[in-house]
Amino acid sequence: MQTVDFTHFELSSGDRVLDLGCGEGRHAIAVYLESDVHCVGVDLSVQDLSRAREKFADFQQVEDTSRELSLTSADALSLPFANDTFDKIICSEVLEHIPDYESVLLEIQRILKPGGLLCVSVPRRWPERICWWLSEEYHLVPGGHVRIFDAGELRNQIEARGFSRYYRHWAHGLHSPYWWLQCLFWETRESNWLIRQYHRLLVWDLMEKPAFTRVLERALDPLLGKSIVMYFRKEVPA
Questions:
Q1: What is the reported pTM?
Q2: For the chain, how many structural domains are there in total?
């Protein structure tokens, strides 16, 4: 399930790209496949990184030495990279999990080159509020969401660190009702018939990408999109 739209986050040959909080590698692998770049996926979870390596094995193009993907475990509050290391940084569905997210923004500011691009996505405010209202367990699980972001405030915080936003969109309109159902039937969510059927629909959509659901999701994203996706450029010092 890809959140970043590379139409608005254009990769260039030779870019060094960081997927911060890469999880099981959805965006890191997408970056690798998109262009001949060096992508680094970072996550605190060794288990998720192991799963990412397994997935990457199905896509790795050994004969193509112009592109590379490496995965490493690190803390987003103290990243093991020098200043101005990366041309592009993705931070998708990560900040809502981290209590001291402002320190993560400072690390991003430090390691992204002047003129570099940053894509940040977080859960959209009102669909997320419904999830919290329907189920406390949804956000109290270990590693769960610790806050609900106001997109305008987050934008201001990022721009105060020397960035300017150049694009915004919403994503995953089909997924909000799925998570509302998960929260509504939290105790029986693993066996609930309705949730299982909805999950089958989402998997079918992900794998087959039928025109009908692609058009439907584009129509639903501005209304129901579960994520808000913002694109920034780091300002170049005068």
A1: 0.95
A2: 1
